[in-house]
Design goal:
heterodimer, A: alpha/beta, 5-stranded mixed beta sheet, 4-stranded mixed beta sheet, 19 strands, 14% strand, globular, B: alpha+beta, 7 helices, 46% helix, 11% strand
């Protein structure tokens, strides 16, 4: 492959790629995201490949393993083009039938279809699945089409045309003006205006002219994986965004700081970078423009705090990932003391889109203060677990019920937690809230990077608050006293409450400590750390009071406050629980109701898990 | 020691002995030894001209690193929020009870090391337990015993 040295070269290559592709040619797209891989989707790909070879179809039918399609709940997923037939829970054994029936004859295999739970009917095509057709997938959409390890696929969908436009038709100032006009705000959590950040980095003096652009792919919020899916499924969109940003800012060095737990994303990113270099889209004299830029990849070390910009940069310098005070922004003095512009993965992926389609188009999507779409990972107690991309301003109710398909097993919705560990829990009466940066903050939560964890009536809100505080206690770097000691104290109090030692003054004390953390902590980890506690006290104070005053956990989660008993009416005396119990705490004659000896019960839950008659009651 | 020197220097040189890749180097070294041996840290400090205390600080600050040798099988229980609300705590308790150790510890016979992770981003499968890289989804306390049984006395790959 010869390096591309001009826009004409790039467009010639694109035309050649497209001329070799027939859009009507049968094509199978298998989801190869981490979620589907865990369901064995690679075996499905192998089986399909084998079957195509067996039937002599390797040349006439294209087979692609793509990035994450988003609908993780129903994996492994495949889509058959050109019709877009959608199959879910596919197993390798289905391969022969899929090829001979659906690919060759266009027949539908009924058992592989998705059943729309709300309407109770089978859905044949991807665009008819409610999970997908209520979204606006402008960033994620290409994930299901392109093979992330093949740059030609990205070029075929118009890839790097925004870069060509930026380099040859726009000045850096014009690019910055366009990004400012689009209203794009950082997708990593704080929601700072991207264009402003770029401008201040461009204008900041650097002693030797060195500036950096950094991509934050250290996605640390538990229950959030949209950045991983973008890097895994469409790495070139992130790279293209970074090159445009670097050109606008005047940076020649870039970094991607990527989370250690994402091996596939790392692999695909490295392949993509290598290919971009080979094609002359990265490195010296990009597309013959005279602009030089390259990207280095750094793996994180599994520290949540390194998602914070100054801690991330410290870690890039080979130091411990501790934050520093930000009276001077990193855009002025960041990595190695040089102006450094850090944006999150999703922010970078938005950039090519804005350059190509214009700020005007982009700013029509979303709300007054929050433009564009946002990708959320919708997880927890929800029927359709997966990644969704929706316009800013959509209501929580639409997300939970129309896209998410409601709560499994007929349970009742309790809350949705947004914003990661430092976000808040939003109760049912606020479900009609439009989701954007301001509204979420108004109700005591935040946008964060886009995790959305749905909780049902079986979730204990005090336990959830304790869970997040424990997480943050472990992840606090320990540099400042309020965060280090304050979180420790809050954890002690919450542990006391969940273990039946709560005092009536505890709620007030938690609020006092929480507000202190907000005021006095050093970085954003500490200032937002009390959100999960304060928001659960605000909306679910009755649960705290039940724990403290009645020594009762209404959801039946907190072990110390629950007892396991067997309902004599439903118990058939089958003896399964008796054999499962590791403590020998269950006794009873065959075919007669069994009983649990409370003094020996360790509340491990094995009896409840194994009972086919729901006779084990936790109260 | 000579063996270490060669392997470790090779890894360091792969990153051009640049200190901005310290974490990556330590990860590669750990991938070879399954932990960070003390002399490996000394070599890194020497080669990068960093004080040993800085290398040690980084090696102990980040969760990914361990200065203790790991067991044959690595059991990782995901404690991400999605797994938590689906009962990951009960699963972890059951794993602890079965192999008799707390997270971060290796069994005396060097068979199992137990660790927890904050999220694997495969939330649809939660609660998840990963053993030697293989994902076991939709775990329940009851499935712990049968899942672990397969790995007992099984040789490492």
């Amino acid at each position: 492959m010869k390096k591309l040295t001009s826009v004409a070269d790039l467009e010639r290559l694109r035309r050649r790629i497209l001329s070799q592709r027939d859009p009507e040619k049968p094509r199978i797209s298998v989801c190869g995201g981490t979620g589907c891989r865990a369901y064995n989707s690679q075996e499905v790909t192998r089986a399909l490949k084998k079957e195509l070879r067996k039937q002599g179809l390797s040349k006439t039918v294209a087979l692609k393993q793509t990035g994450c399609h988003g609908f993780c709940e129903r994996g492994p997923l495949i889509v058959l083009y050109p019709q877009r037939i959608f199959y879910q829970r596919v197993s390798p054994d289905d391969a022969p039938e899929i090829i001979s029936k659906s690919v060759l004859k266009g027949e539908i295999i009924d058992r592989l279809l998705y059943v729309d739970q709300m309407e109770q009917k089978k859905v044949r095509f991807e665009n008819e699945v409610p999970f997908y057709n209520r979204q606006q997938r402008i960033i994620l959409g290409n994930n299901g089409i392109i093979d992330p390890t093949d740059i030609k696929d990205y070029l075929a969908v118009g890839g790097y045309s925004a870069l060509a436009k930026a380099l040859f038709q726009m000045t850096p100032e014009e690019i910055i003006a366009e990004i400012k006009k689009s209203g794009l705000r950082g997708r990593g959590g704080a929601g700072f205006a991207t264009g402003l950040k770029w401008e201040s980095c461009r204008n900041a003096p650097s002693p030797d002219g060195i500036r950096y652009v950094i991509c934050n792919a250290d996605e640390g919020d538990p229950g959030a994986y949209m950045d991983r899916s973008l890097v895994e499924g469409n790495p070139h969109s992130v790279i293209e965004g970074m090159i445009i940003g670097a050109y606008a800012i005047g940076a020649h060095h870039g970094y991607v700081y990527i989370r250690l737990e994402y091996p596939l994303a790392l692999e695909n990113l490295n392949i993509a970078l290598e290919q971009a270099r080979k094609y002359g889209l990265l490195g010296k004299d990009i597309l013959g423009s005279g602009f030089d830029f390259d990207i280095k990849v750094s793996r994180g070390g599994g520290a949540f705090i390194c998602g914070e910009s100054t801690a991330l940069m410290a870690s890039l310098e080979g130091k411990v990932g501790e934050p520093r005070a930000k009276h001077i922004h990193t855009s002025v003095s960041g990595l190695n003391g040089r102006p450094s512009n850090l944006n999150n993965v999703e922010t970078w992926a938005n950039v090519p889109l804005i350059i190509n389609r214009g700020a005007e188009w982009y700013s029509k999507i979303g709300t007054e203060g929050s433009k564009g779409t946002k990708i959320f990972s919708l997880v927890g107690k929800i029927n359709n677990v997966g990644l969704i991309e929706v316009p800013m301003g959509i209501t929580l109710r639409k997300i939970v019920y129309e896209i998410g398909g409601g709560i499994p097993n007929g349970k009742k919705f309790k809350a949705v937690q947004t914003g990661g560990p430092s976000g808040g829990c939003i109760p049912e009466h606020l479900l009609d809230l439009p989701v954007d940066f301001e509204r979420l903050t108004d109700v005591g939560s935040m946008m964060g990077s886009g995790g959305m964890i749905v909780m049902d009536e079986d979730t204990c809100m005090v336990d959830i608050a304790r869970y997040f505080i424990k997480f943050l206690t472990e992840e606090s770097c320990g540099k400042c006293v309020p965060c280090r000691e304050g979180l420790d104290r809050m954890l002690d109090i919450l542990t006391d409450i969940t273990e039946g030692r709560g005092k009536e003054t505890d709620i007030e004390l938690l609020e006092e400590l929480g507000n202190l953390l907000k005021e006095a902590s050093f970085c954003a980890l500490g200032t937002t750390a009390s959100n999960p506690v304060l928001s659960t006290i605000r909306y679910f104070q009755d649960e705290y009071e039940a724990h403290i005053k009645e020594r009762r956990c209404p959801a039946g989660v907190c072990k110390a406050l629950t007892t396991f008993t067997i309902d004599a009416e439903s118990c058939t005396g089958c003896g399964v629980c008796l054999r499962e119990c590791p403590q020998g705490a269950i006794s009873g004659e065959k075919k007669k109701p069994h009983v649990i000896d409370k003094s020996r019960c360790i509340k491990c839950g094995l009896c409840r898990d194994s009972c086919k008659f729901d006779a084990v009651i936790v109260s | 020691m000579t063996n270490h020197v060669e392997k470790v220097t090779q890894i360091i040189n792969r990153y051009g002995a640049n200190k901005d890749s310290l974490i990556s180097m330590l990860q590669d070294i750990q991938a070879v030894y399954r932990y960070l041996p003390e002399d490996a840290l000394r070599i890194v400090a020497n080669e990068l001209r960093l004080p040993l205390i800085q290398v040690y600080a980084v090696a102990t600050f980040f969760k990914a690193f361990t200065l203790q040798p790991r067991g044959k099988h690595l059991v990782t229980v995901c404690l991400g929020t999605a797994c938590h609300v689906r009962g990951a705590r009960a699963v972890l308790d059951e794993v602890k009870r079965h192999i008799g150790i707390e997270p971060g510890v290796t069994t005396g016979d060097m068979q199992f090391t137990l660790e927890t992770v904050n999220c694997l981003g495969a939330c649809a499968l939660g609660p998840i337990v990963v053993i030697d890289g293989k994902y076991h989804g939709q775990m329940s306390p009851r499935r712990v015993k049968t899942t672990l049984k397969v790995y007992r006395n099984k040789p490492t790959k």
